[in-house]
Amino acid sequence: MTDSHRPFNVLFLCTGNSARSIMAESILREIGQGRFNAFSAGSYPAGQVNPLALELLKANRMPTEGLRSKNWEEFAQPDSPPLDFVLTVCDNAAGEVCPVWPGQPMTAHWGIPDPAAVEGSDEAKHRAFSDACRLLLNRIRLFTSLPLAKLDRLSLQNTLREIGKS
Predict the structure, then answer these.
(1) Is 98 known to be catalytic?
(2) Distance from the CA of 150 to the CA of which of 8, 26, 105, 128 falls in 20 to 30 A?
(3) Which helix (H) or strand (E) holds 57?
(4) What is the pLDDT of residues 145-162, one digit of tens each?
């Protein structure tokens, strides 16, 4: 799947790159230390990370340093890191025409409801962010527990899709 001497490069995508993909990047950075490099981007980046996402990550002792909202074109450049996996976490980004990624990565859709779109009380907003974070944490734990070097490409692709349904 990849050169055994380097970590797997994983890019999480959503439209705004302000909440879900940012949280996924942070979670994988923490859980996948040494085995994975985590990145995130958006097709139409918001330009800033949602404060509730940062608050939740900090409260859960997840890394927040260097997190920023960025365009997915940053990862489609010739000098970009070769990607092994590209995972969409929002339905809008999953339906968009993505750039050509260096490295011919495996792709899968792990749709998560957008916590930033929740309106109402602060409690409802915090609950939405907590729910999204919990879903991402569960899926990323499943992903990082896979014997990636032992799975053939088709089995791995099917497993990635199944994780997105969990």
Answers:
(1) yes
(2) 26
(3) helix 51-59
(4) 999 888 888 899 899 999
* Annotated catalytic residue within 31, 76, 98, 118: 98
Q: Considering 23, 24, 62, 90, which one is annotated as catalytic?
A: 90
Q: Which of 14, 38, 57, 160 is catalytic?
A: 14
Which amino acid is residue 142, in one-letter code?
A: L
**What are the tokens at 93?**
């980004």
Residue 14 designated active-site: yes
**Measured between alpha carbons, how far is 45 from 10 in angstroms, rounded to an integer?**
18
Name the phi and psi angles at 153, rounded to 5: -60, -45
pLDDT, position 122: 94
Domains and CATH numbers, the chain: 8-165 (3.40.50.2300)
**Confidence grade of residue 97 (pLDDT, cut at 50, 70, 90):** low
DSSP assignments along 83-110, one per residue: PSEEEE-SHHHHTS-PPPPTT--EEEE-
Burial classification of residue 56, based on how many CB atoms lie within 10 Å of its CB (0-12 exposed, 13-18 middle, 19 or more buried): buried
